[in-house]
Every structure is written in C-alpha cells, then in structure tokens.
Specification:
By secondary structure, the protein is mainly alpha-helical. It has two domains: about 70 residues, no CATH class; about 260 residues, no CATH class. The longest helix is centred in the N-terminal third of the chain and has 30 residues.
C-alpha cells in the first residue's frame, strides 16, 4: 500500500464510520437515514445553488484549515483563528470605508493587505509571548479570541454603525473595493450566488502553503521545529523565530477570511458573521492530515454538510440541522482515535498478519 493511500485511508474510514453512527442516531429518532442523507448531500451537490453555496462556504474553511495546518506543522496549536479573522474582517472593512475614494487598483490591494497583516499581527502576539516567555499558545489564543470579538464589537457599536441601523454592522465599503463574483465569468452560473474570486485565492493559497512548507528554507525550519525542537535548535535553527513566523503566517491565512466576507459578500463588516470558521478549521486540518490538498477535500466535505443541513432542517420530519454538528464531532472523534486503532493493529496477531499482507 502506497504512502498516499495510507494517508487517505483513515480519514475515509472516519467519514464512513461517522455517517454510519449518524445513521443509527437518525433511526433512533424515528427517521429514515437514507432520506436524511439524500437531503443532506443531494442539496449540496445540486447545480447551481448547491454547488455554488458549498464552494462559498468552503472558502473560509480552506483559509482557516490552512491557518491551523501551518501552526500544527510548527508544533503549535492555533485556536485563535476565530479572533484573527474577526480582527482582519473589521480591518478590511475599515480600509474599504476610510479610503473609499481611491481607485480600485489601489483600494483592493490595500484591503487585501489590511486583512493579511492584521491577522498576522493578532496571531504574532501569542507567538511572541510563547517565544519570549514560554506561555502556552492555546491559553493565549483563546483569551485573544474574546478580546478580538469584544474589541471589534465596541468599534462597530460606537464608531462605525450607522445611527438608524438596528443591526450591528458598519456602513458599506467603497464600490472600488468590491471583488468580482464568479457568476460574472462562469456561463450559466448566477451572479446572485456569493461565490467570488476569494475561492480561487484560497486554492492558490493551498499551493503557496505547500511550496512554502515543503520547498523553502523557512518552511523546512518550521517543520523541523514542529517535529523536534531540541534537534532543530541543535542544528542551528532559532526556535523562537520559527514560533513567531509560524503564528504570523497562520494568522495571515485566517485573516484572509475577511477578503471573502467583506470584499466579496456583504461589502461591509457584519458583527457575528463567522459560523465558527476558526474552530471548524481545526477539524478541517485534522481530517485533511495537515496537508493543503487534504484541507481542500475536508473543507468541501464540511461545507457540503453545512449547506445541506439547511434542507434537512426544513424538509426532514424529525432530524434537524444539528445532525451536521453531530457528524462533524463524530468524524473528529474517529480521527483523534487513530493512535488507538494503530495500537490495536499492532497488538493483535490477526491485524499484524493483515498489515503484513498490505
């Protein structure tokens, strides 16, 4: 069995097992699992709305999955992608509002830079704290999530919300900051679907992350630090520098969610816009085996479940869209249990013979 096949086998088993367990739960509540899954997956694969919205929902998950991936490869657990994307989305909207009169050739790059740099800055804070003082990035990123959401909400509420608007949102960004939706270029694809060029940017980022981590000196040093920091330090690699770099790159990727949200969808900052993108990105990275190609596949799966859950909630008799959260949780449980199954395979003689045959 090739290395690629082995890498794909266990995530596939985890997904299939999760659907089996989910089907049993659907039976227990008195519904037909085949009908529920047909609603769940069929609606997500319909053309053009199902596929369009699935790809749209996959866009932020690709960004956050890549963000968590880079952290993992550096031996870091970035749970702060949620806060980083909030800060970045607000910064993107602020630039789009403040410099609305600029030409699109300047305004769009400025908005891109705002999203990337603000996300990188917010993630670099726990990176510096860990590199300088040894404080754990999990605690710091969790705390910074609360600070980011509260800080952005304050500025929206008291400084950037229109006085007569009952919704917590800013005014519109300048029209020059809008990025095109794919319906403008793809024949037969309606422009009302918010899928925009941020999706293509997410795919490009997957390629760039792969090249960065596996084809550059900086990426090698990050991976070496994540694999064995003591050996990396003995080899002359600055551990503190790699920690800060990995966190900054991770935050920059999470911040690019703001490009999709502000420049390609709402054209303003909307408070509470994230559907737990930062936390779902952890699941995407785990299921994707911490590889950019795997992140794309995992993001598409979770996005299909997210979109299909709306139809399950509306047309199923007993099953609600909460089944999506159940399936995601079961998938992660099976992925997390991989070490146990590997131990089981190594312990049982029959499994050992099977492993020898493959």
């Amino acid at each position: 069995m090739t290395k690629l096949a082995r890498e794909l086998l266990f995530p596939l088993i985890a997904v299939v097992a999760a659907f089996i367990v989910g089907g049993i739960l659907i039976l227990l509540v008195g519904d037909n699992p085949f009908v529920a899954y047909r609603l769940l997956l069929g609606s997500a694969l319909s053309w053009p709305d199902g596929i369009g919205y699935t790809l749209f929902h996959a866009t932020p998950l690709i960004f956050t999955g890549l963000a968590v991936l880079v952290g993992f490869r550096g031996g870091l657990f970035n749970i702060g992608a949620e806060g980083q994307l909030y800060i970045a989305a607000f910064a993107t909207a602020w630039v789009g509002i403040t410099f609305a009169n600029l030409t699109p050739w300047l305004l769009i790059p400025f908005c891109f830079a705002a999203a990337i740099l603000s996300g990188a800055f917010w993630a670099a804070i726990p990176g510096v704290l860990k590199a300088r003082f040894g404080s754990h990035e999990v605690i710091n990123t969790i705390m910074l999530n609360f600070i980011a959401v509260a800080l952005v909400s304050y500025f929206v509420q008291y400084h950037y919300k229109l006085p007569d608007d009952p919704i917590m949102e800013t005014s519109f960004i300048g029209e020059g900051a809008h990025i095109a939706r794919l319906g403008k270029f793809v024949p037969g694809f309606p422009e009302r679907i918010p899928l925009n060029i941020a999706f293509l940017l997410a795919l490009l980022c997957c390629l760039l992350v792969y090249l960065f981590l596996w084809r550059t000196k900086w990426g090698y040093e990050i991976r070496a630090t994540g694999s064995n920091p003591f050996a990396a330090e003995y080899g002359g690699i600055s551990i503190g520098k790699q920690i800060v770099l990995a966190m900054a790159v991770s935050g920059a990727l999470a911040g690019m969610v703001g490009i999709n949200e502000v420049l390609g969808y709402r054209y303003r900052y909307y408070d509470g816009f994230s559907d737990n993108y930062g936390f779902t990105g952890i699941a995407v990275a785990l299921l994707g085996r911490n590889h950019p190609a795997g992140v794309i596949l995992a993001a598409l799966l979770f996005a299909a479940l997210q979109h299909g859950g709306i139809y399950v909630d509306g047309f199923s008799e007993h099953v609600t869209k909460d089944i999506v959260q159940v399936l995601q949780g079961i998938i992660i449980l099976f992925v997390a249990a991989e070490a146990f199954f590997k131990w089981l395979v190594g312990r049982r003689p029959s499994f050992q013979r099977l492993r020898a045959n493959v």
